[in-house]
C-alpha cells in the first residue's frame, strides 16, 4: 500500500468526523491496537476509532491518502489499546509509515512543550496560515524545533571507525555523531565531533543521506569521510569503546532503518567496488 502524506500548513486541532484518522500518544509512547504491535511494517498505526477521553493535546498533522490525520495525546491508555516505545515501533516500520509517525511524534513533542512565549510569558496561540504558534502580546513566533546533527562513518583502507556508546544498552557499534554548534558548517561539525570523540582527523567529507529522528527532534545529516591522521583516543564520557573494523568482520550494527546503518552499508559497498 502506498501512503501519500501531506502536511497541514498550520497548527490546528483535528476535526472529529467518522473518517478522521487518529494517531494516539501517551507522552512519549505510541498507543496501538494490539494486533498492530507484532507487524508494524504491514499494519497502519492510525485508526478511525474515536476514544471517549478528553485529549491533553490534539493537532491536525495533515492527510494520509486524502484523509485527515490528527495527533492526539491522551492522559491514559484507552480500552483496546496498548502502549509501545516509539523507538521500537519505528525500527520495525516501513519507510512511509516511519515518515508519518516520525513527523507526528516531533509535532506532538513540540506542541506539548511550547505553551508560553519564551520572551514575555504570554500564552501562545496557533496561527491559521502558518505551522507556528504566536504570542498575542509581543508577536514572537515559535516554530517546531529541529536540531541539526552530523553523523559520519570514517574509512581507513578496508576498515571503518565505529564506536560503542555509553548510552547503548546492547553491544551495538555505530557511527560517531553530534550536534552542529551555532555558526558551524555541517562539515566543520563532523570534523570537530570525530576529533573530540575519537582523536581522529578526517578528510574528504561527502554528504550521503539525511534522516529526521524524533528523539526528540534531530535532523541527522549523514556523511562518508576518510581517515586523515591521528591515533584513536576516545572520549570516555561519550564512548565506551571505538575501533577500526574490517568490512568483513563488522560488529553488531544499528537497525536497517537508521541513517547510521545506511552509511555503514554505503561505505562497505564503496570498499567492495574498488
Ligand atoms: Zn511574547
UniProtKB/TrEMBL annotation:
The gene is nudC. Its EC number is 3.6.1.22. The lineage of its organism: Bacteria, Pseudomonadati, Pseudomonadota, Gammaproteobacteria, Oceanospirillales. GO terms for biological process: NAD+ catabolic process; NADP+ catabolic process. It catalyses: a 5'-end NAD(+)-phospho-ribonucleoside in mRNA + H2O = a 5'-end phospho-adenosine-phospho-ribonucleoside in mRNA + beta-nicotinamide D-ribonucleotide + 2 H(+). Keywords: Hydrolase, Magnesium, Metal-binding, NAD. GO terms for molecular function: metal ion binding; NADH pyrophosphatase activity. The keyword Magnesium applies. Belongs to the Nudix hydrolase family. NudC subfamily. It is an enzyme of class 3 (hydrolase). GO terms for cellular component: cytosol. Its cofactor is Zn(2+); Mg(2+). InterPro entries: NAD-cap_RNA_hydrolase_NudC (IPR050241), NudC-like_C (IPR049734), Nudix_hydrolase (IPR020476), NUDIX_hydrolase-like_dom_sf (IPR015797), NUDIX_hydrolase_CS (IPR020084), NUDIX_hydrolase_dom (IPR000086), Znr_NADH_PPase (IPR015376). NCBIfam families: PRK00241.1. Residues 144-267 form the Nudix hydrolase domain. This is NAD(+) diphosphatase.
Amino acid at each position: 500500500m502506498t501512503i501519500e502524506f501531506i502536511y497541514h500548513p498550520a497548527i490546528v486541532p483535528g476535526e472529529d468526523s467518522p473518517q478522521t484518522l487518529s494517531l494516539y500518544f501517551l507522552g512519549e509512547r505510541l498507543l496501538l491496537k494490539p494486533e498492530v504491535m507484532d507487524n508494524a511494517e504491514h499494519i497502519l498505526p492510525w485508526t478511525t476509532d474515536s476514544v471517549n477521553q478528553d485529549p491533553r493535546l490534539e493537532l491536525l498533522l495533515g492527510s494520509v491518502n486524502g484523509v485527515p490525520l490528527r495527533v492526539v495525546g491522551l492522559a491514559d491508555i484507552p480500552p483496546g489499546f496498548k502502549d509501545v516505545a516509539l523507538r521500537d515501533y519505528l525500527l520495525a516500520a516501513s519507510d512511509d509509515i516511519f515518515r508519518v509517525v516520525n513527523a507526528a511524534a516531533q509535532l506532538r513533542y513540540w506542541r506539548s512543550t511550547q505553551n508560553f512565549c519564551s520572551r514575555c510569558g504570554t500564552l501562545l496561540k496557533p496561527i491559521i496560515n502558518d505551522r507556528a504558534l504566536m504570542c498575542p502580546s509581543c508577536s514572537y513566533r515559535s516554530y517546531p524545533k529541529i536540531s541539526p546533527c552530523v553523523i559520519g562513518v570514517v574509512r581507513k583502507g578496508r576498515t571503518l571507525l565505529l564506536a560503542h556508546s555509553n548510552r547503548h544498552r546492547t553491544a551495538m557499534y555505530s557511527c560517531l555523531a553530534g550536534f552542529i554548534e551555532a555558526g558551524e558548517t555541517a562539515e566543520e561539525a563532523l570534523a570537530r565531533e570525530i576529533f573530540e570523540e575519537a582523536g581522529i582527523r578526517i578528510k574528504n567529507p561527502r554528504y550521503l543521506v539525511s534522516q529526521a529522528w524524533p528523539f526528540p527532534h534531530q535532523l541527522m545529516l549523514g556523511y562518508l569521510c576518510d581517515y586523515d591522521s591521528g591515533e584513536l583516543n576516545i572520549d570516555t564520557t561519550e564512548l565506551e569503546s571505538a575501533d577500526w573494523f574490517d568490512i568483513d568482520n563488522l560488529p553488531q550494527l544499528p537497525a536497517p532503518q537508521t541513517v547510521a546503518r545506511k552509511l555503514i552499508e554505503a561505505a562497505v559497498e564503496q570498499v567492495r567496488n574498488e
